[in-house]
Amino acid sequence: MKNPIKLALTLAYITVFYNILEGLFSVLLGINDETIALAGFGIDSFVEVFSGIGILHMLIRFKQTSEENIGRFEKTALYITSISFYILTLSLIITAVLNLFLFKKQPESTLAGIIISLISILTMWLLVYYKNKVALELNSKAIKADAACTKTCMNLSFVLLASSFLYQIWNIPYVDSLAGIIIAYFSFKEGKEAWSNAKTSSIKCSCSCH
């Protein structure tokens, strides 16, 4: 890989801008169609933005600092990614509870959820693939944790697709709630791992960024 830092920066920018757009469309369409699943998915997209910003900050500082200070910035990125996971976990649980116990109206349509989830699955799959590739190249735990965050959001896209499709075809409500709670569990585990990695003193990034 000729310039892994440049690729990592590009991936971080794509992550931030794509998830801002996805979040805005999902929340607006979710409110319009009265579907909590889609609106909740949009909120989760903004969580991915936090992780992307943390990686952006880390990579920009890579280019401005000496090699011995890199570990400190990667720790900061890991903490931000970990907190993003915890926020994602909480938002998933809240969404599931609302779907199961409080939300009385059924969605007017889930077609928007099907379309957005399909676009998201393709985009997130590509991001996960290249983030893992560049994380291996740079030996970066922070970028690997960010890839895990993106993968969790991709799994959530599958949940949105399944629930939207089942409701659109057979009018089966709230099928995404239990799956959302399961994803919340794995999201919490990823957050805990990222936090644990951030606390270690051996974090290094073997990138040649100068």
Folded structure, characterized:
By secondary structure, the protein is mainly α. Helix 2 runs antiparallel to helix 5 (141-170). It contains six helices and no strands. It has one domain: Alpha-lytic protease prodomain-like (Up-down Bundle), CATH 1.20.1510. The model is unreliable at 201-210 (pLDDT under 50). Helices cover 82% and strands 0% of the residues.
Tag the structure with descriptive keywords.
210 residues; mainly alpha; Alpha-lytic protease prodomain-like; 6 helices; disordered C terminus
Helix run count: 6
Helix proportion of residues, in percent?
Answer: over 70%
Q: Supply the CATH class.
A: Mainly Alpha
Q: Provide the CATH topology.
A: Alpha-lytic protease prodomain-like
Q: What CATH architecture do you see?
A: Up-down Bundle
How many discrete domains? 1
Secondary structure elements and pairings:
Elements (H helix, E strand, L loop, with lengths): L3 H30 L2 H27 L7 H33 L8 H28 L2 H30 L4 H25 L11
Helix pairs in contact: 1-2, 1-4, 2-3, 2-5, 3-5, 3-6, 4-5, 5-6
